[in-house]
Each structure stands twice: as structure tokens, then as C-alpha cells.
Design goal:
By secondary structure, the protein is α+β, with helices and mostly antiparallel strands. Helix content is 31%, strand content 28%.
């Protein structure tokens, strides 16, 4: 009897192994997410889309130069992805995406940030639900964009059955490439039942709008059951932000540079140029004022300042009552 049980267990285990190999490989991505000192309250609300992933929050990192220490933290917490937010001067926010411990590493500048509390959209999603990642087709045109796409998938993609997650998919994260930047938007998936009359109206509206994501809808039929028809639509829920790629390093927080964005100008340099521009306007106004003073003095329009002095008159008060 014991031999039969052992054989049945081994047979069941072999069947399970065959089923596991036949299916897709499990997603074993684990994310370590942390930030540096100086992050504002608006920037602290940003990682909400990534919080659904299998991650570990760590205290804020004190250093901004010894980023290689993040590899040790990732190894300590058994994480193979690192998402690090680096704040500078309380204004600029840089995002580091790294695969620990061998790399690569992508550094991006995050700007045009609008949180969910600022946008006041009507849509919403469940806390802990898994998102669908939608990428622009242009991500497959260049090698560095392929690397960036893969890094975004590993960071924002939530593994099935991850801790603190729910078995629901109710929102979409869209990554669109335009002007050399990645525009990130989040949408809620709305599913409503429609009647036969509403089906024709929805199809005509979809044909008229042709590409409007807010109003675009799709009629689908559920598998099994009564075969009810439902309408799928997307509603933006936020947050919104834009990512500008700066460099891609071969290693994890180090190594040779395999891609560099030559067109990127740091926001600190932009602010310095604006200050110099304002200072140049002030210098030009001061120079014009000085030229006006010299001209008025030469013409004798200022008493006691010009080179030309008025000739004395016998009827002046200063002469009569001297």
C-alpha cells in the first residue's frame, strides 16, 4: 500500500512537472523601490502604479553618489529589480531602473507630473489590482528603446499571484513614445452590459470617432454562460508623467555607457540660462540709463552736471539779492 502511494505521488509529481513546463514560465520579478532624501509630497505619491508589483519598500537612501550600495540592498532582500527615485534641489526628479546585480541600468528624467488627486478624474481602480501594459509600436524600432521597454515591463509588470495583489485586471498603463520622450497614462477598464439596440449605436459611434481612446469601445461576448454582450471602454484615472531617457549603462548603477541622449538638457542648465537672460536684460537697462544720464549732462539739461554752463544774468535773484 505504501509502495502504491509513493508511486502515485511520483507519478502525480511528474504530471505536474510536465504541466508546468508546458505552460509559460512563472514571472519571478521582485522589485526594490526606494527614494533619496528631499522627495516632495507630490513626488512621493508618484510610485502608486508600481506599488502593486511584488516589491519591498526601504528607508530613504542618504547618499546620491554611492548608488552601487543599492545592489547590496537588492541582494539582501532577494530582489532582482531596483526602482530608485533621486530628488535634486526639491524640484528635479530622476528615475533609475536597474537589473541587479549585472545590469543594465536606465536613467530617466521625470517631469510634467500630475498626481491622481490633482487630476480629479471620475475613473478608479482597485488597490492591489494588476495592470495591463500597453506599449507604442515605435519601441521596437531602435535597440535602446527595446532595452527601455524590457526594463519598464520588469518594473511595472505585476507577477501573477504576487503578494499583496488581487487576482483582478481592471486598468491599463499606456507607454507612448513621442518627441523622444515616454508619455505614461493610466486608464480604467469599464465593462457594461449593452442591449441589442445599444450595440448598433455603440458600433456607429466607434466608427465615427475612429481612434478616440476616451470614447472608443468594443463589444465582446463572454465565454460560456448566457453569452451576454458587454461594452469595454477606457477612462483615464491618472497619474500622468513624462520620462526622458538620459543614459543607459551596461552594469547595475555603473559600467560603460551604451546609450546617451545627446539632445537632453538638464533642468538646472535651463534655469541657469533663464537667470543669465534676466541678468542680461537688467544689464542692458542699466547701460541705457547710464547713456541717458551722460547725454543729459552733456546737453546741460541737469543743473550743475553739464559741461555747458549758463551765462550769468544781471536780473537773477542770486545777483540782485547777493
Amino acid at each position: 500500500m505504501s509502495a502504491y502511494k509513493s508511486l502515485s505521488k511520483s507519478k502525480g509529481g511528474s504530471d505536474a512537472d510536465e504541466d508546468s513546463t508546458s505552460t509559460a514560465q512563472a514571472n519571478r520579478q521582485r522589485l526594490l523601490m526606494l527614494s533619496s532624501r528631499g522627495v516632495t509630497y507630490r513626488q512621493a505619491l508618484l510610485p502608486a502604479p508600481a506599488k502593486a508589483a511584488s516589491h519591498l519598500n526601504y528607508a530613504k537612501l542618504d547618499t546620491k553618489t554611492k548608488l552601487y550600495q543599492l545592489n547590496e540592498l537588492a541582494d539582501l532582500y532577494n530582489c532582482n529589480n531596483v526602482l530608485f527615485f533621486e530628488a535634486r534641489k526639491g524640484k528635479d526628479l530622476y528615475v533609475w531602473l536597474a537589473k541587479a546585480p549585472n545590469g543594465p541600468t536606465v536613467k530617466l528624467h521625470l517631469h510634467n507630473l500630475h498626481t491622481m488627486s490633482e487630476l480629479h478624474f471620475s475613473g478608479n481602480c482597485l488597490k492591489g489590482s494588476r495592470p495591463i501594459l500597453s506599449f507604442d509600436a515605435r519601441f521596437q524600432t531602435q535597440p535602446h528603446l527595446l532595452v527601455l521597454r524590457e526594463m519598464l515591463i520588469h518594473v511595472f509588470g505585476v507577477p501573477k499571484g504576487a503578494r499583496k495583489t488581487k487576482p483582478f485586471i481592471d486598468h491599463v498603463m499606456s507607454f507612448t513614445l513621442a518627441d523622444g520622450k515616454v508619455w505614461v497614462r493610466c486608464y480604467q477598464i469599464n465593462e457594461t452590459e449593452v442591449s441589442k439596440d445599444g450595440k448598433a449605436a455603440a458600433e456607429t459611434a466607434k466608427m465615427d470617432l475612429d481612434g478616440n481612446t476616451e470614447a472608443a469601445s468594443q463589444i465582446v461576448r463572454k465565454k460560456g454562460g448566457r453569452g451576454e454582450e458587454t461594452k469595454l471602454s477606457l477612462t483615464e484615472i491618472g497619474p500622468r508623467f513624462v520620462l526622458t531617457p538620459i543614459v543607459i549603462l551596461e552594469g547595475s548603477f555603473g559600467g560603460p555607457v551604451i546609450y546617451e541622449n545627446r539632445e537632453f538638457v538638464s533642468p538646472n542648465q535651463i534655469r541657469a540660462d533663464l537667470r543669465l537672460k534676466r541678468a542680461g536684460k537688467y544689464a542692458r537697462r542699466s547701460e541705457q540709463d547710464m547713456d541717458s544720464r551722460v547725454k543729459r549732462r552733456d546737453l546741460g539739461l541737469r543743473s550743475g552736471d553739464g559741461k555747458r554752463k549758463r551765462e550769468g544774468n544781471e536780473l537773477d535773484d542770486a545777483v540782485l539779492f547777493a
